[in-house]
Amino acid sequence: MPVLGSLLASPQMRWLLLALPCLGGSVSRPGLELVGIFGGCDVSARRFPWQVSLRFYSLRHDQRRHACGGSLIHPQWVLSAAHCVQEELEACAFRVQVGQLRLYDHDQLTRVAKIIRHPQFNESLAARGGADIAPLELEAPTMLSEHVHPISLPPASLRVPLGKTCWVTGWGDIVYKKPLPPPYPLQEVDVPLVGNDDCARQYQNHSGGSSEVIRGDVLCTGREGRDSCQVRVPPVLSLLGQETEHHTVSRVCSPSYWGG
């Protein structure tokens, strides 16, 4: 409980909340593997050791299927999106897989013990913002290694300039409506940070959406041909610290939309 309290109350968590790209499709349901990484490539070992796969049991597949991505932020805590863990479902319905580059390759799943949806989360606004964030407490701490390691949280004072390159990671469609083929390798794509005003104009040009589509807790990323658009479950957005060559920032991403 102290760990949870410090995470939710920390300036870093508030910063993470402000870094929620929230444009795109409707609220997801478990089992939809729609984390599209368009224009990306396979991830090499040890590059994103905080990447996790959130699983939910699929009757059709008789298997716990990938539902959403997330970031390991503590040996016993994962950060994902609130819309991925529906309020009507108990924590015991979910599992987490860490350290896996290929989905379903020698699964060793960990039970989720507790789900803390952000108190201001509004499911009707999940695609547009609405505090779409949820820390997940694992039943037991994960064993850390060079393949499994939490991502560092940023200082509250961090300001990321527009145009800064970030990396989106996830599994799913590699082209619109073209699923990632077996063996389902984790994908990455580099994308620049885009101003919300520009992003709103682009989104409205493509969707005819209202001027209130992009909310204050939204971060837009992407460029034509490279993004995570047309997704309904969150990939992970990371920022590389160029001075130290260490990954320093993790953000949960609801779908971003920019070109593509």
From TrEMBL:
InterPro entries: Peptidase_S1_PA, Peptidase_S1_PA_chymotrypsin, Peptidase_S1A, Trypsin_dom, TRYPSIN_HIS
CDD domains documented for this protein: Tryp_SPc
Domain called Peptidase S1: residue spans: 37-260
UniProt KW keywords: Disulfide bond, Glycoprotein, Hydrolase, Protease, Serine protease, Signal
UniProt keyword Aminoacyl-tRNA synthetase, yes or no: no
GO molecular function, one term: serine-type endopeptidase activity
Name listed for the protein in its UniProt record: Peptidase S1 domain-containing protein
Source organism of the structure: Prolemur simus
